[in-house]
Every structure is written in structure tokens, then in C-alpha cells.
Queue: 4 jobs
Job 1
Amino acid sequence: MTRDTITAPPPARLSTVLKEWGRIGCIGFGGPPAHIALLRKLCVEDRKWLDAQEFEDAVVACNLLPGPASTQLAIFCAWRVRGRTGALVGGAAFIVPGLILILALAVLFLGNPPLWVKAAGAGAGAAVAAVAVHAGTSLVPASWQRATQHSSRHRWTLYLLLGAVAAVTIGPWLVLLLIACGIVERIAQRLPTPRRRGPAPAVPVLAAAGFGGGVLVSIAWVALKVGALSYGGGFVIVPLMQADAVDHHHWMTSGQFLNAVALGQVTPGPVVHTVAVVGYAAAGLGGGLLASAVAFSPSFAFILLGAHRFDRLRGNPHVRAFLDGAGPAAIGAILGSAVPLTQALTQPWQYAILAGAAVLMLALRRGPVLTLTTAAAIGVITVLAGASLPH
């Protein structure tokens, strides 16, 4: 992708952007792979707004950024066809349908739901750990392949193990470990230091935002970690949020958090919508909307301020070296998140559902939407047959 090819987006009406990106936001079940396929069909195959190479380059560049890559890709494609206004309209159209649905479901599941809703949540929540393992293992082959040298594969394994341990132990501070692994790998690859000095590291300043203030400040900090400081795909937000939402702030019970993760998987649009359920649990509808606004704002900022430099980002060895460390640590964190997710289960029948979900996803290669809806149905049947609900 060259700068010349991305500075003159072909014309498209805002109404077209609103309609097409809104359609993808409504039917985009299945996470990033589904979103990428739908965007490619629209922008490359049907409308021919982008050529295939430019689209693939954009996919790679978005994966080099922290935060939800498929959301950033949707914003980028809208930027390409209608400029900055199109990016804002298209990005919002992609995000809002799933946000409305997940907040409506949050009201149902986190309020005083009827028995069958509680049972469905307990069943779907029981399968979430299997979804986490599936999400993590699916990222391993490509990441391992990038670690080509013997020494780099030793470091890759170390980063993976550190991420897994951190997901179980340090919870809300996991993002600092991801950044540290990225910095260590950049040093280990012995790249020359860039001549141009960048701004002072923002992490200590951002970390300080987690202290003091009321519940809205805490919600904003959790959402900021999800949207601006997470690497490795949508599911890495689970260990980032769980310790904050359940153990530290006590906004949710473990069972409610499992429901939140399940809702983020079965609703269309970005998995990051899970943070809206956490915000709703903390401060009602306003908290849910605040969490979403903070979590998605960095994605818009990255595209609006830096999309014209995507070609440089892809070829930057320092960025790639950083992700060679942060990436496997994030995969380890996703895998490690299965431990506290499993520990949140309290009923024997939930463990049986978890085992079945593991077979369905890891052996039979079924998707998360089918797995979670099946688990929810089994939960309803089991509880109505006389089994106890989780504590």
C-alpha cells in the first residue's frame, strides 16, 4: 500500500456508507473473521472501492495496532471510500447495532431475570472457558511461524507462559506485562534506536488514571485498557476486565461476568462490546455508554490520524519487533483466562457443559455462536429439569 493509493478515496455517498456498514454491524456474527470476510466482499468484490492487495495490507496494518482490529478495519475502509466523515459514519454504523443489542441483553441478564434467562446465562457462561482456549489456540500457529530463529522461539515460549501466568495472577495490570514483553523483544532483536525521539511513554500517566475519582473514572480506565492498550485480538480483553470488574471493584459476580463474555460473543459486531456490559453493571446505562465510547475512541483516533501512514507502519521493524513480544504474551493471556473463567463455575452440570463445549469447538471445529447458544439451551433444559442454579 503506497501513500498515493490511499489519499484519494473514490466517491461514495454517506447514505451508502451508513447503509452498508450498518448492515455489516447487524449481521456480523462470528467475530473478526466474519467481519473481515464481509468487508472484503463489500469493498473489494462487490463495490471495488479497494483492490485486493490494498485490503490485505490494511488487515495487516490494523493487526499491528492495539485494540479491536476488525473495528479498525471497518473504520479504515469507510475512510477510504468517504474520507474522515465516512470513517465516523461507517465506524458508528458498524458499532451501534451490536451495542444496542448487548445493552438490551445486559438489562435482561443483569436485572431480575426469569428463571429460564438465568439458566440460559449459566449454560452459556459455562462454555466461555472453552471459547477462550479456542480463541487462543487459533492464534498460535501464525505467531509461532513468525518466530523463525531458535532463540526467538525460546523467547516466544517464555512470553506465552508469562502471559498465561499473568492472566491468572495480576489481572488488571496485565497490560503492563504485554508492553514489557514487547519492549524486551525489541531490545533482544538488537534493532538500532530510531533517531527521531517520540513522545514520553504514556503508560505511567495512563496507569495513574486508575487511582482516585469515582466509579465513572474507574469505568473509563478499564475501557481505555481494553481499547488502547490491548494486543492480540478481542478475547485478550477478558483477563484485562475480569479482575477489575469482579475482584477489585465488585461491579459483577463471577457468573455475571461469564454472561457478559458470552453476550459479547453471540451478538453481532466487535467482541469489545463486552465492556459495555461491565460498564452497565457498574453504573447503569450511562456507564455502559461511557465504557463503549472510551473503548472505541482509540480505534477512530488511530485511523483518522494515522491511516495515511499505514504503509510505514507495516514496514516498521520496531513495531514488528514489539509485537513479536507482546503478541505471544497476549495469546498466553487468552489461554490463561480459561483458568479464572473455569473457577467461576459452581455446579457440576456446568463442568459437563464446559467439557461438551471443548469437544464442540476444539475437536469438531464449531464456532462460538453455535457453541454458546447450544450451551444456553442445555442450561435451560437442565435447570427446568430440577438442577440448581449457580450460587
Note: The chain has a mean pLDDT of 86.
Job 2
Amino acid sequence: MLARVRATAGRVATVAGAVLLTGGLGNDAVTLPGILATVAAAGIGLAVNPKVWRAPASVRWTAISLYTGPHAGCAVLLVGERLAPDTGVSLLVQAAAAALWTGATWILRPGRTAREFVDEALAQELADAAKAEEVAAVPVAPAYDSPQAQWWGERFAIEGGVAPGTVLLGHRQVGEQCLALVIGAQKRGQPVPDISKPGLSAELDLPEELIDIRPVPGRGAGVRLLVLGQRPAAEAGPGDSDAEVWAEIAATAMPGIELIEATTYEMPQELT
């Protein structure tokens, strides 16, 4: 109903403008009142079309220009009729301009065009906002330094996993059946959370006695050494020591770390 009223008002305004332009062809007294009437019509039209002047800032002035374009054009033609020379050719040109203005305004309906332009801009903004919310809702996948770090992060360090809040800092294949991992806390300055041996045993299907979690020599509680599997047996010989075993483990896992203290114990028969 409101759209029909606006359409009718637009048609009436177009006819009124055509009458003003026609009257201004031979009567200069129409110029000033016609311009004032045109300005008043533009102001009233904008006042009753809040969608136009409340449009998004990015398209507001474009929408206002579309809406007031016919009014501005009518005022310019009225001034041109006042200033044009009084000749037959000039009168024909003025009449043609008035007819062109009337036909273009009647067909294009700038008022409706401006409202549709605003609707499209609002729809685009809503679509962009919804898309931004969808992008924000998608969690950013963590970046891993290596496939092994990804394996640890996605299998053990996940929420509810056996080692949440940890990251894999390094790894070293010590022997055919022994793997050394250096685990750190995700948050700097925090100790490595307790890692459940039974949980690791169940997750890896590895006996608990083949899982060893201990401090890293020379490092704080924010780093832990995790040894999985059967440690290689040390062969007697010169230079064979725990320091060399640790050097082998830390060669790639934690470069620059030195063994400060070691404790030697006999491996139970059932573990060897």
C-alpha cells in the first residue's frame, strides 16, 4: 500500500515538473516559484523516505543523488529557460529538453531506483557481516613445525587427550624400538602438565614399563623428556656412558643440552 502511494506521488511530481517546464518556456515568472517548488518537493520526498537518508554511509550520498537528481534537473532547466535567447530554435531545444526530462523521469523512476539501490546495499552488508561471522566462527588450524609435531598435537595434545596443553619440541629415533620425545608446555612459563602413563599406554598400545617420563637435564619444569619403547642396551667399551646416551637423544631433539647428572640402575630381567 505504501509503495503504491509513493508511486502515485512520484507520478504526480513528474507531471507537475512537466507543467512547470512547459510554463517556463514562455513565462519567466514561473522560474523562481518553480525552483522553490522543486526544492520543497525534494525536501518533502526525502523526509518521507527515511530509507534513503538513513542508508549505509558508503552509499548514502549516492542514494540521495539518485533521488534528488530529477529535482535538480528540473531546476537547471527552469534556469536555462530563463537565460535562453528568445528565438524559435531555442524554444524548440527547450521544449525537447523538457520532454526528455519528463520521459526519463517517468520511465526511470529515480525515487524507486534510489530505494532499491539502498536495499541492495543493505543486503550486501548483511551478507558480508554473515560471511565475516562464519569466518570468525571457524577455528584457525594450528601451525605445526613438522609432521611429528602435528601427530602429537592432533592425537595427544587435544582437549581431553592424554597430554593437553603440550607441544612436541623435538624427537629422536634412539634405536629400532626406542623413540625419544622432548615435550614442552604450550604456555611459556608454565610447567608441563602431568602426562598420564596409563593414558599413553592405552593410546599407543605400549606397556607402561616401556614409557619413561623424566625431566630434561639442565632444563626447567616447562620441558619433559618422554622415552617410548625399549632403550638400546649399552655395550661395554671406552667412552660408553649415560652422557653419550643422552647426547644421542638430544642431538636433534634438544641441541645444546648437556647431561648434568645421571643415575645407573639395573634393568629388570622381564624388561630386557
Note: Strands lie at 166-175, 178-185, 211-215, 223-229.
Job 3
Amino acid sequence: MTTVWRPSSGCGPHCLPGNGEAPAVPAVRQLGRAAGLLGMLGLGIGLAALLPVLPARERQAALRGWARSTARACGVRLEVRGRLPRRRALLVANHVSWWDILALLAVAPARLTAKQEVRRWPLIGLLARSAGTVFVDRSRPRELPATVGRVASALRSGRSVAVFPEGTTWCGAAASCRPPTGFRPAMFQAAIDAGAPVVPLRIAYRCGVTGETTTAPAFVGDETLLRSVRRMLQVRRLTVCVDIAAPLHPGRSADRRALARVAESAVHLVPSSPAVPPAPVVVEPGPVQPVRVPARPTAGPAVLPVPTRSPAALLPAGVSGGAASTGEPERKLPLAA
């Protein structure tokens, strides 16, 4: 099995906060949160039996309500910046934690893609199967085209699909820890085939006490799921921030690798939400300008305007950008192979 097919990050125990580094709630509160999480997982079993028979709109509302209720039970606040398209889309996000799945369901209850092993997880696997999750068997690369076809079929049927193209979790803090393979392009072909927009999302976690990004929810290295859950439930005023970038509209002849690079740039250039003490859910819709992705050039690199909200200091070397949503001049991002 190649490392390309099984992505890895540079994260390890050194990426996680040590004992006492993150503000923690009392032990009694931690037990209450654990009981709330178990209760919501139990409720999820009943929900799993209902999802297959519910109409699409009611199914999405049920998943969104369950995910947001689970967040409240665990003491997690949700902040959303930006606005999703009203129609189907391929949602692509960075991957920090197992909690990312709940964050996506709370914002956009789409069909998910997950590794085959999730199917066998207790409770979570049952709920994932009932929600129509598309499972990826990474031990059989030859089955990838069929998986891409299933995602494309879901998009054609009007369902949004959420994908973590990095293929693995990482702390989300140190650029050196980012998976070296970046966004894998395979699933972007599904959006091209189905004529669906690609919506980049950035997921970040912040401690409401310090106002700074925290790696406490990260699920990295050889850590067990139980230990990760315990650490996350300890954090005082944990906030998950979901930033929605402008949608990308690929043409039928667009190159999936170029599309993946543009989406990855949009995800990692969108800044996390500023520290504020709002209500548990804050939605700040703003004007969204679509971005057209041209076909792969045959002679010389093409350029694609990519509006972002990030300052120039956050851009990687060799890339310039602007903030179309704030009225700043639009810059150019080269799409050379």
C-alpha cells in the first residue's frame, strides 16, 4: 500500500496540549458532559432507524438537530461564517478531529464519505450507515473509481456530499504537520461529472477562555478515540468555527487536480472566526461570489480569480490573494500544473 493512498501527517503527542495547558471544567461537569454524549449517542440509535424512511428535508432537519443538540450536551459552541448554496454541492473541508463530522452535520446535513473502518464503529457506524454515508475502502485502490461514481450519483440526485480530501486528521495548527499529499483530487472528479459546485469549508477549534486556537479536539497519532473524547470534554468553553468560502464552479472539462489545489488554497487561507462571546450558534451570512474553474490549459498556465477573506500575511509563498467579499481588489491565483 502506497503512502499516497494512505495519507499521513506529521502530528504526534507534541501537537496536543499537556496537562493543565487548556482551561478545564470541574470533574463533575466532565461527567455530566460524558453522560450527555452517551445519551445523544443512544438517541442516535433511534434516529438511525427513522432516517431511511424520512423524506429528504425532514432527514436533513433531524440530522442537523441531533448534531446541534449533541454539541450543546458536550458544552461545545458552534460558530458559522458564510453561506452555503441552496442546491446540492460537494463540500470539502480540512480534517482535525472526529468532531468534524458533527460540525458538518450541524451546518450542512449532507451525505458523508468515510473510511471503511467507520462502518464497524459501535453506534457511530450504525448512524453513518443509516445516514447514507459513502464508505471508501482504502485497502482496494481499484475500487476508487466506483466510489467516485457513487458520489457523483448522489450529487446528480440533488444530495450534497461532504468530503475530507486530506484523507487523515492533523492538528490544524502547524503547517509542517499538514499531510504532504494535500487535497487528493479523486473526489473532485465527482463534482465535475455531476456539474456540481465545490464549496471549501475550514473547521477550526478555539478555547473561549483564551480566545486562541486549541488542538485539544485533535485526533492524531496513535491516540485512542476514548482518550481523545475525554480530553475534548474537559475543555472549558470550546468553540468549533466553520468558515464557508465562495463556491467553485468547475466546467465539464475542468482538471480535477487544479480544482483540488484551488479548493485547498481556499480552505487554508480562510481565517478562523475571531474570538467573541456570542450565543451558542452565530450565523453571519454574507455575499457569496461564485468562482469559475476553467479547463486545464494546453499552452501556458491559466489564471483563476479566487476571492478570499484572508490577509496577505496568511498566503503561502508565491500566491497572492484578495477579499472579494469585502470589496478589495480581486487577485490572481495561477493554475499551472
Note: The chain has eight helices and twelve strands.
Job 4
Amino acid sequence: MTTDLIITPEVQSILDMIRNTGKYWYEIALTDHPVYPQFARKLVVTGFNTPDLEGDEDRIYVNVRQYLVLRDDNKIYKRIQMPDWMIHEGNVEEILGEDGFLKGIYRTTDNKGQIIEEKEEILKAQSVQYVRFLIKTKAAHIVDVLERFLGLYIALFEEEINKI
């Protein structure tokens, strides 16, 4: 007796995509290194976590590696451990809305209540709490969050990234 699994081409394509999904959470291409142009470079997020929920810290740790890929044969030449990035309770982020960033108005009045000045300001929220909000409310996926923050990571660790 033989039992075969029959699946449609559409289902097979989904299975193939699942099988071919990389082991990383997110990757971003880097510009060519001025000394080593033979490598295509990318940063890869290999993991992320938060410390003990009972403790005082409110942080997210993001684990990052740099991959050097030989352009000639598209083979990974080297994986370099990058500094872990800590998004901590002191960081703030601009709050996204449907049409850009959410804004408020700072209004200055005199003693009589007369308006002296009004200034529009983009609203910000504590980063770790904002990240949790975005993910838990499904306003953004973890990949969207990592994409936004990795640009900041590159600016913060530019020297370490280019020291290969």
C-alpha cells in the first residue's frame, strides 16, 4: 500500500518559501567598504531579547552580525560579531500616525491668557514601550521595527562596522 501527499502548485510554492527562509530575523545591505570592494556586506539581526521582566531594566537587546560575501561566487567569506545594540528606557521615538508623525502644539501664553507663540512639535514616546505597543497592537511587524532601528544602529556603530 502507498500513500502519497497531493498538493497544488500554490501550496508547494508556500512550502518552498518557508523552507528557503533564512535563519536571521532581518538583514540590511551596507555600502561597499572603501578598502575591500570585493565583498558585498550586510548586517544581519540574529536575535533579540529583553532582560528579566521583574527587574528594573526596560530594555531590548538586539544581536547583530556582519556578513562579508565574496562578489565573485556569492559565498559567505566571514561572519563578524558586531556589538549588541541595547534599546533602553532612555531612548525616545517619534510616534507614527496614518499620515506621517503625530504632532501636538506647544502654546505659550502670557499672564492674561493671550497666546504669545504656538509651535508644532512631533510627539515622542519611550522607545521600548513604543516597540511593544507597535508589535502587540499589530500596527507594525517585528521586521518593520528592526528596519527602522537598524538605520540608527548603523549610524551609532559606523566605526565598528567599517573596521573589518
Note: The chain is about 25% helix and 35% strand.
